[in-house]
Specification:
538 residues, alpha/beta, Spore Coat Polysaccharide Biosynthesis Protein SpsA, Chain A, 14 helices, 18% strand, elongated
């Protein structure tokens, strides 16, 4: 039996026996939604939640609990949100000793949620975690009594990500006085509330009011409130490092709510491919397509070499298809030179287009330029290496970026964390994540500088998977006919300076740190599991 100190026992008894006797002097019509802004990083989530309430035709105010740590710019943006009201409050002490990794999503500031019971000017509050969105009007929640929530699928606990609250200075004082001694099964606020409040004192809500984003198709379709519970969050999924996943349908749903949020809006270049709704943005990687083949994604602008190259790839037995990304809108479309060669015609000229993936049918994608000619043995060997490491990027050209002061280098003697996209294998889900779900603030840097899409792609992949790329060293010559003539090869260009600038900008906007680095290379004579470039933390 779990030990509970005397103070919480009194509180449990008081709530379970006397809850109905607790009266609130506030105006019965004073109702509101509420959420918690823990830090600046979570602001896009709050803005998406606010959008979702408006889309669901809610006019009730959204109270946002804010700790002192939130910056002035974020506070200003929050106050500019329609119908949002900032509630600045002092932090509550985090009552547990724990490592940052164990705390995971249970940030210490989440205990500020307990301050909601002190907002006695409101008669009823529906609390929504920042990682929720409202898909349909939920005005009926205000008819439920205080301490209403959805039961967790497993165990005898209630999920406090969505709950109905009846503010009371009496209840608030009991909670604040006793939460630090109550214990918590998850060292978070949810565990503390479940320890403080008797199980019988809660009123269960239907699961449609707090449906996890990983729910099955029917459950997801019927949900009124989606809860993106777990480490992978829609607004910074590239920081999950392999922990948790987001189904495509759930990511698309969040993007709909975030479409007017400047810092979060997914750029959604192209449609989600058929069947993609059951796929995942993070975590699950499978090296096999229908037949274990590879799709080639060849980007071209003005060189005629695309034709010869596309045919060369198409004739290989393990290549299922070759898609040519036709970047030059002014150049007349040409006829496909082989039955396995097809075209993608973007509406705009952008380096971000080289990751268009909606039509691809293989999980393995080889991304390449129109000026790289490589021997077939090297291509086959690299494909085999990728199949052994489907969650990693595998490529022929390693590079490295450093976070301080924000630099990019071709000197990989100490290790590398980039493989260039002019010859690189990737899982299709990483392309889809880049192509559909990265915020515009990131892809805009690529467009403004006509550069750096490969740096951003690598940062995305490392952040999503928690694994650095693998470089393949070929014993045969790989011919780069564009060397010295492309945007990265001009000796008098400011190419490296631009790449340094991109590293700095991407880092400021929350992309992956460079802690994961590979050393060495995967050699062409390498057999199964013979990988020299293993990952380690630096």
């Amino acid at each position: 039996m779990r030990h509970i100190s005397p103070a919480p026992i009194v509180f449990l008894f008081t709530l379970s026996v006397c809850a109905e006797a607790l009266q609130n002097s506030a105006n019965p019509s004073a109702i509101a939604f509420a959420t918690l802004l823990c830090d600046d990083e979570t602001l896009p989530a709050i803005e998406a939640l606010g959008n979702s309430l408006r889309i669901a035709h809610h006019k009730e105010p959204l109270l946002v609990i804010i700790p002192p740590s939130v910056s002035a710019p974020s506070l200003k943006r929050l106050k500019s949100m329609k119908n949002a009201r900032a509630v600045e409050t002092e932090s509550l002490r985090y009552p547990f000793n724990s490592t940052t990794d164990r705390m995971s999503i249970n940030k210490p500031c989440r205990f500020l949620k307990l301050q909601l019971w002190g907002l006695s000017e409101w008669s009823k509050i529906v609390f929504l975690d920042a990682d929720t969105i409202v898909r349909r009007n939920v005005a009926e929640l205000f008819d439920y009594p205080g301490f209403s929530a959805v039961k967790d699928p497993v165990g005898m606990n209630y999920n406090t990500g969505v709950m109905v609250i009846e503010p009371s200075s009496y209840v608030h004082s009991l909670i604040v006085q006793n939460y630090a001694h109550a214990g918590s099964y998850n060292i978070g606020d949810q565990g503390a509330l479940n320890a403080l409040v008797s199980f019988d004192a809660w009123t269960p809500l239907p699961t449609q009011y707090n449906t996890f984003h990983t729910a099955s198709g029917d459950a997801f379709k019927g949900a009124k409130i989606i809860h993106y519970s777990g480490d992978a969050k829609p607004w910074n999924f590239w920081q999950a490092k392999g922990r948790g996943h987001i189904p495509i349908r759930a990511m698309v749903e969040w993007c709909k709510m975030a479409k007017d949020v400047p810092t979060a809006a997914c750029h959604m270049r192209g449609p989600v491919h058929e069947g993609g709704w059951d796929g995942s943005v993070n975590h699950y990687y499978d090296s096999e397509g229908e037949d274990g083949g590879v799709s080639v994604l060849l980007s071209t602008y003005d060189r005629k070499s695309w034709r010869e190259l596309s045919v060369w790839y198409a004739k290989l037995d393990f290549v299922k298809e070759v898609y040519v990304v036709w970047q030059n809108a002014k150049k007349a479309h040409e006829k496909a030179p082989h039955k396995k060669v097809m075209f993608l015609f973007p509406k705009d000229d952008s380096l971000n287009n080289r990751y268009l993936s909606s039509q691809l049918s293989s999980n393995c994608v080889y991304i390449c330029d129109d000026d790289i000619f490589l021997p077939e043995p090297a291509f086959r060997m690299a494909f085999e290496v990728w199949k052994q490491n489907p969650s990693r990027l595998v490529g022929f050209y390693p590079r490295v970026w450093h976070p301080t002061p924000g630099t990019y280098s071709t000197d990989v003697s100490p290790g590398y964390n980039i493989v260039l996209t002019k010859g690189m294998f990737s899982h299709r889900s990483i392309l889809m994540a880049y192509n559909l779900f990265l915020p515009k603030r990131l892809t805009k840097i690529v467009d403004e500088n006509l550069n750096c899409e490969d740096i951003l792609f690598n940062m995305l992949a490392v952040g999503m998977t928690g694994l650095p790329p693998l470089a393949v060293l070929s014993n045969e010559t790989i011919y780069d006919i564009g060397k010295g003539t492309g945007i990265s090869g001009k000796k008098d260009s400011a190419h490296l300076n631009v790449r340094d600038y991109c590293v700095q900008q991407f880092s400021k906007l929350g992309m992956s740190d460079s802690g994961l680095v590979s050393e060495g290379s995967v050699l062409p004579m390498g057999m199964k599991n013979h990988v020299i470039g293993a990952a380690y933390d630096t």
